[in-house]
Amino acid sequence: MLHDVEAVVLVGGKGTRLRPLTLSAPKPMLPTAGVPFLAHLLSRIRQAGVRRVVLGTSYLAETFSDHFGDGSAMDMEISYVVENQPLGTGGGIRNVFKYLSADDVLVFNGDVLCGTDLTAVVDTHRRTDADVTLHLVRVQNPRAFGCVPTDDDGRVTAFLEKTEDPPTDQINAGCYVFRRDVIESIPEGRPVSVERETFPDLLASGARVSGHVDNAYWRDMGTPLDLVHGSADLVRGVAPSAALPGPPGESLVLNGATVDRTARVFGGTTVGRGVTIGRGARVEGSMLFDGAVVEDNARLVYAVIGAGARVGEGAVVHDTVIGDRAVVGAGCELRRGMRIWPEVVLPPHGVRFSPDV
Ligand code: GDD
Ligand code: MG
């Protein structure tokens, strides 16, 4: 148990790849399997024995404290530090330094859904007497992440953020252990990228940077498709969380929702509060935010339906984000990464987008 470790969670990003969902809520606050995404991450941190957490906020900063308060509801002590101008990942870590007192600090990107054993990551850090330890995973598309090769001793040899030609499929999983004095050495009062500046500088100066590689569940929730798949994995219990409001299963139906008994709702779908799903509808692996309406015979696959939005009779929404209170007219067909902005009204049969057209 990590009673002597504190945590920092970086939640200051604008979540641009998740627009329009992130126009009204920062990415870590998006409702995911019944609670804000960040609640799942915090529950993992608490389960590992860490009580004190500092959130480095910037974009829509007050939404975090409004929801989590002092953290006592989760048996945690949560503090908030606001960056008036975003300071980047490294600047965000430096900016919370004075709130930290533990020798070892776990730092998290606030948008990663992960099942790693945090105690094992800290063990690697201590066993190798490292300045910084990085949690690393293997992925299919390393170009989208920070590529991090290691040598036979598990020592990090380079840090290549979003490089075209990554030498390995091993990437930065967005969870670090920092020795507290290493945080103090990050320059203060200006934007710093931990990925593009701090890690390369530490390596160049000969610091001991360790890699902790494992095969745990891992997903960055930064795109709509990752968000919807990650949410489905939480609902089905594929991704671990102590914050899931109900037992794992094919769907999570929150209070006040009405699902017609002829509708099929499966694949890890979340049905938000007050949602209505009509006759013969088929909803697979989707996120339905509070108050959304799915009319008869509509078909949803990996769809995100914003709060109060409406999907008309027989409409098809596949791998598409519908903004809050938007209306998809009857018979519309939306596919392949479309995004409908909040309040937009698509007339019946008004849009037909399919890979074959
Ligand atoms: N406080 C603060 N200030 N937080 C920030 C800022 C800032 O200026 N900018 C970004 N963040 C937070 C975001 O809210 C997010 O939780 C985290 O830092 C990472 O930012 P992303 O924008 O999601 O980065 P990414 O996904 O492209 O890449 C990062 O994560 C990958 C793993 O998911 C990098 O760390 C990669 O190296 C890594 O592989
Ligand atoms: Mg990310």
Annotated CATH topology of the largest domain? Spore Coat Polysaccharide Biosynthesis Protein SpsA, Chain A
The helix fraction, in percent, is 10-25%
Number of domains: 2
What would CATH call the class of the largest domain?
Alpha Beta
Q: Alpha-carbon distance between the termini?
A: 56 Å
The poorly predicted ranges are none
Biggest sheet record: 7 strands, mixed
Tally the helices.
7
Radius of gyration: 21 Å
Going across the biggest sheet, name each strand in turn.
5-4-1-6-11-8-12
Strand fraction equals: 25-35%
CATH homologous superfamily caption of the largest domain:
Spore Coat Polysaccharide Biosynthesis Protein SpsA, Chain A
Structural class: alpha/beta
List keywords for this structure.
single chain, 357 residues, alpha/beta, Spore Coat Polysaccharide Biosynthesis Protein SpsA, Chain A, UDP N-Acetylglucosamine Acyltransferase, domain 1, 2 domains, seven-stranded mixed beta sheet, 7 helices, binds guanosine-5'-diphosphate-alpha-D-mannose
Give the structure's gist in a few sentences:
By secondary structure, the chain is α/β, with parallel strands linked by helices. The chain folds into 2 domains: about 5-225, Spore Coat Polysaccharide Biosynthesis Protein SpsA, Chain A (Alpha-Beta Complex), CATH 3.90.550; about 250-345, Hexapeptide repeat proteins (UDP N-Acetylglucosamine Acyltransferase, domain 1, 3 Solenoid), CATH 2.160.10.10. It has helices at about 35-45, 60-70, 90-95, 120-125, 180-185, 195-205, 225-235, and strands at about 5-10, 30, 35, 50-55, 75-80, 105-110, 110-115, 130-140, 145, 160, 170-180, 210-215, 220, 250-255, 260, 265, 270, 275, 280-285, 285-290, 295, 300, 305, 310, 315-320, 320, 325-330, 335, 340, 345.
